[in-house]
Protein: Iron hydroxylase
Organism: Nocardia yunnanensis
Amino acid sequence: MKSVLSERQTLHPSDIERRDLPESAARAVRHLAAEIAVTVGAGPEIAGTLSHPVLLRHIDAKYGRLPDAVHEALRPPATDAGVTIIRRLDLGDDELGQTPHNWTQAAAQAGDRAHRCASFELDIAMLLLARCAGEPFGWEGQQGGRLVNNIVPTPGHEHEQSGASSTALLSPHTEDAFHPERANLLMLGCLRNPDRVGTTVSSVRHTELDAAQRETLSRARLPILPDVSYGTGFGDGPAPAVATLGSDACRLTLRFDPAYTPLDDADDEFRSAYRHLAAELERVCLTAALTPGELLLVDNDVVVHGRVPFTPRYDGTDRWLKRVNIRLPQRRRDASEAAEDGYGQRVVAPFRTSRGRNR
Ligand SMILES: [Fe+2]
């Protein structure tokens, strides 16, 4: 499989759609987030999971007040590349404090009034922006159900296939591919990225597959197991086979996570088609090295994302992203996913406006 390492220096290629927020609109996001942060007050009961009803009420009541330019910028990616870079929130490095070593510490710092970093306010900004796009949600089994995840390199997890890793290439994957309620959109907000570490994105709509390969990959052949951030041992129980390729309004979609797919269990024909798809996703890979204040909006039904390897610093200045899962209530998924139980993993979805899954 071709390495994406050579693409590390390909910064913000023109194939990635960009939307620049007017300065006044970006300021309005920070201003409203600060106002809500002061009103609800930082504290572990609020900042721990961000699901406190008082905070949720403020988000829901106020995101509609943000300027039209913000709502316009947060619509789903418009091109076949399936990704958009939104520039940029005004962000000072000195307001962040030290990059935490793990997600637990990040949540604790956000809720520590004495710590006085902007992390909690930026969590609120991320929720406001995500609410403009759709319905932000979390997972009970991931980062304590927190609605905004912190992605930081974590000691002892360097080689994992998870957001806590660093020195290992994070293979291109659909976020939470194992689950029928996975996000339609993924929003990554960059707080700090001093070594310009690249996030990789590959659109299935840029790949070249022949009719036989499409047909093979559209059949449910293999399961996708939960990633290590949800725990281990999921391969021991029943694991439903899922289709790799699907369609939405006759346009190609995908569900792909090779690190958690037991490819050796498939026949030669399937393995060959799957490997071709993986090679194509590498061929069409684009790399975005986000800078502080930039947001990357990823269509999780169309695009797989990953990250190039990097050497963690562990000195308080490491790369730090915030991530939000977003459901688009108007989007539908294949009815065949209805029977999946998602390995018992449950969403935390306080903004859900309609019952049921995306179907
Ligand atoms: Fe991911």
